[in-house]
Design goal:
The chain has helices at about 15-30, 40-55, 60-70, 70-80, 90-110, 125-140, 145, 155-165, 175-185, 195-200, 235-250, 315, 340-350, 355-360, 370-380, 385-400, 405-415, 420-430, 435-450, 455-470, 490-505; strands spanning about 115-120, 145-155, 165-170, 185-190, 190-195, 200-205, 220-225, 250-255, 270-275, 280. By secondary structure, the chain is an alpha/beta fold. It folds into three domains: about 15-80, no CATH class; about 90-280, Vaccinia Virus protein VP39 (Rossmann fold); about 340-505, Serine Threonine Protein Phosphatase 5, Tetratricopeptide repeat, CATH 1.25.40.10. Helix 19 packs antiparallel against helix 20 (about 455-470). About 35% of the residues are buried. The structure holds S-adenosylmethionine.
Length: about 500
């Protein structure tokens, strides 16, 4: 058997696992990357190539070189990274950036400094330039004066390509043709270059997610794009990276990850937010102004359904000394008469329990049964499970067919991890109203926990089908009003996709 000290013939077909282990450990420690199964072949090929190039004949010699020589490490890494990227990848994120996140950043920014956006794991630059283009599209060609984009990657060869700004046709597969015309110059039938004013908005430098000593420009970040990178790291590494990235963000900074990665990186280090069919992270807990019936809060960009995408350019395009301000929004009219069931629902959604209790007591037009249901829901979300059950019992004494009551009992059981009981309650609710897509989703979750993958898959599929069929609207029988259960169509869609993919694998 070959030992770590062994001489390796680089053209030999196999390199034993024990010889690879120290190399793997070094790469994981310094760059976070892990190699298992098929990806291990890539590591072996890189090892063979670099041993030939550096004329090292034994593994020990090459390992020593790799440990001690930073240039060699950089060259080796270039052979290991996956640089797959293209312009406007996950287009929804660029809309999210300009219509939701930038207004939020402006609301919290206290000085006139430029908004700093970072693309980390930027590869050959398509993501960073897409950000620049999206900003120009939303805020006009002067956006370069208000925004600064810094982009970093561990891979120096990818960075060189990014700096050149020259791309082949394949990089444009996600870009609408009018944007290609507007922001790129053709240099050859198969190549285009980024126009200079877009190029000038972005600076590239080497950045290692595992390192504490990165260039100073990668700090005080308002918005960070960290997409399609974390998939190459194990959980421990991902957690460490989230902590380091948090330190690079401004106190009110935001982080966007690829849609399939976000939940796997929700370690409680940053706050997870869902908006406009997208999940993203916020460093600060989003401010929820305290509620008094006399002074209902003005809307913020987050609780507004959507900020008009051209809400800011007036401020941005003018080269004025005044800092850009958040779009003006009319405050809600603030009298107690406006406090409606919808407001109560919104307070519950925002987890403002005390205010919700107070409003519940002021509402004249709710029946006793409805009040008990609301009290049960508030107790459920406060995790006061026994209290929730007591309220539900009162409801069931009056109306044994209450769908909301069954759902609340199901959720109590689910939160208490009594999945068998939860399944029974959810099935009862579905017996009373088969179109409850959220309940199909809860049912699927419980079935998955109970290790019934086929039934679980069917229930997730059913949830998705019902959302498509009904657009998310459900009418309960007997004129029962649906309680504001805090799960949205977007969340259910996303989570169903996620779990279905995992269950099928
Ligand atoms: C698949 S690309 C993602 C490109 C782009 N973010 C996107 O979503 O299209 C992954 C990039 O992460 C980079 N990367 C891997 N490990 C890294 C590390 N430790 N620090 C910084 N970048 C890293 C790779 O070099 C590669 O360019």
């Amino acid at each position: 058997m070959m030992s770590a000290e062994s001489v390796i013939n680089p053209s030999e077909p196999d390199i034993p696992i024990e010889v690879l282990a120290p190399i793997k450990a070094l790469i994981r420690e310094r760059a976070g990357l892990i190699f298992q199964g098929a990806t291990q072949d890539k590591l072996i090929k890189a090892l063979r190539d670099r041993m030939v190039a550096t004329r090292k004949e034994s593994f020990t010699q090459y390992h020593q070189l790799l440990r001690s020589n930073i240039e060699e490490f950089d060259q080796f890494i270039v052979l290991l990274t996956v640089n797959e990227t293209f312009f406007y990848r996950e287009m929804a994120h660029f809309d999210l950036l300009t219509t939701v996140i930038i207004p939020l950043v402006h609301e919290s920014k206290k000085d006139q400094s430029r908004v700093k956006i970072m693309s980390v794991g930027c590869s050959s630059g398509e993501e960073a330039y897409s950000i620049a283009i999206a900003l120009c599209e939303a805020f006009g060609p002067q956006a370069g004066r208000q925004f600064q984009i810094v982009a970093g990657d561990i891979d120096k060869v990818a960075l060189k390509k990014a700096e050149s700004g020259k791309y082949g046709n394949f990089s444009f597969r996600g870009v609408p043709p009018h944007l290609i015309e507007k922001y790129f110059d053709p240099v050859h039938p198969s190549f285009r270059t980024v126009k200079p004013f877009i190029k000038n908005m972005v600076t590239f430098d080497q950045f290692n997610l595992l390192s504490k000593d990165n260039p100073a420009c990668f700090s005080d970040i308002d918005v960070m794009f960290y997409r399609n990178v974390s998939i190459y790291f194990d959980e421990e590494t991902r957690k460490g990276i989230m902590g380091r990235l948090k330190n690079l963000l401004c106190p009110n900074g935001f982080l966007i990850m690829g849609s399939t990665e976000t939940l796997a990186n929700d370690f409680g280090i940053l706050h997870l937010i869902s908006k406009k069919d997208c999940f993203f992270f916020s460093k600060a807990e989003i401010h929820k102004p305290s509620f008094t019936p006399e002074a209902l809060p003005a809307e913020t960009a987050l609780n507004r359904e959507m900020v008009p995408s051209r809400a800011i350019p007036q401020n941005i395009n003018k080269e004025s000394a005044t800092p850009p301000v958040a779009p003006e929004i009319a405050p809600l009219k603030s009298t107690i008469n406006l406090v409606s069931v919808e407001k109560l629902d919104a307070l519950i959604h925002e987890e403002r329990w005390k205010e919700a209790d107070r409003v519940l007591n002021t509402l004249q037009n709710l029946s006793e049964k409805e009040k008990q249901l609301y009290l049960a829901l508030i107790a459920l979300y406060r995790r006061a499970f026994e209290e929730a059950k007591l309220y539900v019992e009162k409801v069931l004494a009056e109306d044994e067919w209450s769908v909301n009551a069954q759902i609340i009992l199901g959720l109590v059981a689910k939160y208490q991890e009594d999945f068998n009981a939860a399944v029974t309650y959810f099935k009862k609710a579905l017996y009373l109203c088969a179109e409850l897509w959220a309940v199909h989703y809860y049912l699927a979750d419980c079935l998955r926990q109970l290790q019934h993958p086929k039934q679980s898959l069917r229930a997730y599929a059913q949830a998705l089908e019902l959302i498509n069929k009904t657009g998310g609207k459900v009418e309960l029988p007997n004129n029962e009003r649906m309680l504001p259960f805090n799960i949205s169509v977007e969340q259910v869609r996303f989570l169903c996709d996620l779990h279905m993919t995992a269950l099928k694998d």
